[in-house]
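Lecture 7 notes: from sequence to structure.
We start with the chain below.
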Amino acid sequence: MKIALGLEYCGSNYYGWQTQSHAISVQAKVESALSSVADENISVVCAGRTDAGVHALHQVIHFETTRQREPKAWVFGGNVHLPADISFIWAKPVADDFHARFSARSRGYRYVILNRAARAGLFTSQMTWEYCYLDTNLMNEAASCLLGEHDFSAYRGRDCQAKTPVRTVRHLEIKRHNDFVVIDIEANAFLHHMVRNIAGVLIAIGTGKEPVEWAREVLEGRDRRLGGITAPPHGLYLRTIEYPEAYQIPANAGIDWPLVV
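Predicted structure tokens for the same chain:
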């Protein structure tokens, strides 16, 4: 059987999604929990590999097993074997041609910024703090040039191994709610550090340190060295995964942080 499963996690205590020989990962915890339920070794494939310190409001994985289990057994049985900062949300059998990564049409990320003079006393590992006031009108104006299909070489990480830097951004919007500024971005796929590099550029523009035109100049320069800092990982969340309707995979079944937005 092939099973698709949705989960959410706080990435603060993990060295990213992917199993590492030298550090603890989300994938290792997930595979261990599912292997306990199946009573056989389970290997999983995810929709999007998150970096160290990055969270998921809705990650999607698939795995194959010879064991017959009810969907709720994978969810609740698996959660018994997971740490408190990882939780399975749903599970369902899927067609043999389903692939958590390659069947996905788009992915959506959210970047959460606490924007006030005083630093946070709560949820410090779940958001980024910026003490300078962020002008979301300037940020949205700058972000408009990133919509559509572009070469995002200037917004990719130095160690990115993608074969092509071309990606299509379908949605990019910045909103304020009280002291929170939230960047929501959706694309067909993302390059390594792409969202955090975009956030770093937009934050610099929002604070007035750089002009609105800088976002386009960075994009057209196609040189990562032109793009300024990479925003911290702890404000970043994998939020949505979209699949063809035939698979009946929820786009987002988790908690939508922050709840006020």
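Points to note: The radius of gyration is 19 Å. The longest helix spans residues 26-38.
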